[in-house]
Amino acid sequence: MLRERESKEPAMNPFQKNESKETLFSPVSTEEMLPGPPSPPKKSTPKLFGSSYPLSIAFIVVNEFCERFSYYGMKAVLTLYFLYFLHWNEDTSTSVYHAFSSLCYFTPILGAAIADSWLGKFKTIIYLSLVYVLGHVFKSLGAIPILGGKMLHTILSLVGLSLIALGTGGIKPCVAAFGGDQFEEEHAEARTRYFSVFYLSINAGSLISTFITPMLRGDVKRFGEDCYALAFGIPGLLMVLALGEWSGKGCEQPLIPAT
């Protein structure tokens, strides 16, 4: 009897899948069966003369040259402006000069915080460059002899220097990083060369402005004295050009979002 019972029971396959009725008749989601929409093709960024460099790199390098020319050109005659235009003594001139320089190296902290937590790199550069240009306007107006008296010149100069310090320091941590964002990962070598050209433009703008701005002050005479308004105005125009470069189409669409 035991052998007959064993022969009637089917042999159990150890590899047989144990499927319940719930598994066999479970509904299938239509989302799992239907394929998703195809991902859009990756938009290629314009390249510079057919190289691996994005076109926006040219705008960034020219901008940095103009910005450094603007800053160091103004700073080259700043102490002379304090001594011989505002007629401050040496102690006051030295103190204000170094306070301005210190503020320029403090405001990058503020610029980095704004870019990282609020506006992003691109908008931070645009907005603080506008502040930068406005500072040059105040500084140039404060160097026109027929515009008001010494008190007005002093107020315009200090306000202009404060705005310039905020502008130049605020964009400092953003520009180089924004340029590095323009490269794909496979162009790491081109990114390295970009940073070399970027810092070359910084040094070139600083060096050239140190020679040209004092010449504008000393060789051009207006109102019977040195033309500090021109010495401050030309760097301001270079900063306007730099702002125009950032507003160009080459920098409107960064490859990696400026977060």
Automatic annotation (TrEMBL):
<keyword id="KW-0812">Transmembrane</keyword>
<protein>
    <recommendedName>
        <fullName>Slc15a2 protein</fullName>
    </recommendedName>
</protein>
<dbReference type="InterPro" id="IPR018456">
    <property type="entry name" value="PTR2_symporter_CS"/>
</dbReference>
<feature type="transmembrane region" description="Helical">
    <location>
        <begin position="126"/>
        <end position="148"/>
    </location>
</feature>
<dbReference type="GO" id="GO:0016020">
    <property type="term" value="C:membrane"/>
</dbReference>
<keyword id="KW-0813">Transport</keyword>
<feature type="transmembrane region" description="Helical">
    <location>
        <begin position="154"/>
        <end position="175"/>
    </location>
</feature>
<keyword id="KW-0653">Protein transport</keyword>
<dbReference type="InterPro" id="IPR036259">
    <property type="entry name" value="MFS_trans_sf"/>
</dbReference>
<keyword id="KW-0769">Symport</keyword>
<dbReference type="GO" id="GO:0006857">
    <property type="term" value="P:oligopeptide transport"/>
</dbReference>
<feature type="transmembrane region" description="Helical">
    <location>
        <begin position="196"/>
        <end position="216"/>
    </location>
</feature>
<feature type="transmembrane region" description="Helical">
    <location>
        <begin position="228"/>
        <end position="246"/>
    </location>
</feature>
<feature type="region of interest" description="Disordered">
    <location>
        <begin position="1"/>
        <end position="45"/>
    </location>
</feature>
<dbReference type="Pfam" id="PF00854">
    <property type="entry name" value="PTR2"/>
</dbReference>
<feature type="transmembrane region" description="Helical">
    <location>
        <begin position="99"/>
        <end position="119"/>
    </location>
</feature>
<keyword id="KW-0571">Peptide transport</keyword>
<keyword id="KW-1133">Transmembrane helix</keyword>
<comment type="similarity">
    <text>Belongs to the major facilitator superfamily. Proton-dependent oligopeptide transporter (POT/PTR) (TC 2.A.17) family.</text>
</comment>
<dbReference type="GO" id="GO:0015293">
    <property type="term" value="F:symporter activity"/>
</dbReference>
<dbReference type="InterPro" id="IPR000109">
    <property type="entry name" value="POT_fam"/>
</dbReference>
<keyword id="KW-0472">Membrane</keyword>
<feature type="transmembrane region" description="Helical">
    <location>
        <begin position="69"/>
        <end position="87"/>
    </location>
</feature>
